[in-house]
Amino acid sequence: MTAVRFLKQNSLSLFFGVLFVAALVGQSFAGWASFNETQTSEGLVSVGWVEYVTSSSFAADVAENWQSEYLQFLLYIWATIWFVQRGSSESKDVDQAGPGSDQEQRVGRFARPDSPAWARAGGLRQVLFAHSLLIVMGGIFLLSWLAQSVAGVVAYDEEQLTALEAPVTWVEYVHSADFWNRTLQNWQSEFLAVGSMAVLGIVLRARGSSESKPVGASHEDTGA
Questions:
Q1: Residue where a domain terminates, one of 23, 38, 54
Q2: Span 73-89, average pLDDT
Q3: Nearest to 74 by CA among 142, 11, 20, 170
Q4: Residues 6+ apart with CB under 8 A from 47
Q5: Whole-structure pTM over 0.90, yes or no?
């Protein structure tokens, strides 16, 4: 495979990969500047960029966003199994709610020659593969949520000590207003964005996008 062909065939993932790295680097420098401004205003010593990006403050900010994004897609993937939205390209047809039959899902004896091996298998392997996307998304969400809470309590305790106040334990922190304020302000925006995409796609179009219905499709067409 030539380099040009590889780039073309993987352009979507590469595009978002580059954007991710660029945004993460940009966040690190913006966060570093903001962190040092706070340090200076409080009469504390400024830190270097490497020290900042390895700090609990930066880790908490990054993990906070990751966990909300993966929760968004975890719930969206699960919800689109059971719930429908008439006229949305993000929804299945209104009469196709549910996990579908083995024949529709091409598993077991209905698998095709090019179907993944675990789709042809039975028992636990098929069950795991049939839910593998949800399992992995859920696992990443839980790990990033745990990382956010651990890094968050360290950063919070640093602030507490600077203010000459008592630090808290991890359990106390995950029950605190600070933790849930940081968490829920991300969750609500993710839920709004996904819900808006499902509803706006009923009457609006993006020509050529797989996330949109054809420009001339009826507003009533679902799953187009």
A1: 54
A2: 93
A3: 142
A4: 32, 35, 36, 39, 55
A5: no
